[in-house]
Design a protein that fits this description.
Blueprint: H1 8-29, H2 36-57, H3 72-76, H4 85-88
Helix pairs in contact: 1-2
Amino acid sequence: MADVPKNNALERAAESAFMELLEGAAGAAGLPSTSKKSLKLAIAAWSLVHGYSTLRVNGALDFLKPRQIPPIQSVVQFVNFRRPRTMARKSAASSQSI
């Protein structure tokens, strides 16, 4: 990666945005926001949306007709925010902290 000068305001805004995503992902999954699973889920969601938007912006989906390109809302519906059954049996107290 190229050396990019630090922008403290931008870094704070990025951290704040990620924390909102983390809280939302944790809440949707019924997990504490401090759990490793919540962190993984937030990163997965961020990666999915970032990847989708990069594909759209860079024209990687241009071979499709515009009506064939699904909106991001229909793509993210495949993310399962529910805890797997094996996790549902464990108590929230046993969740590992970040």
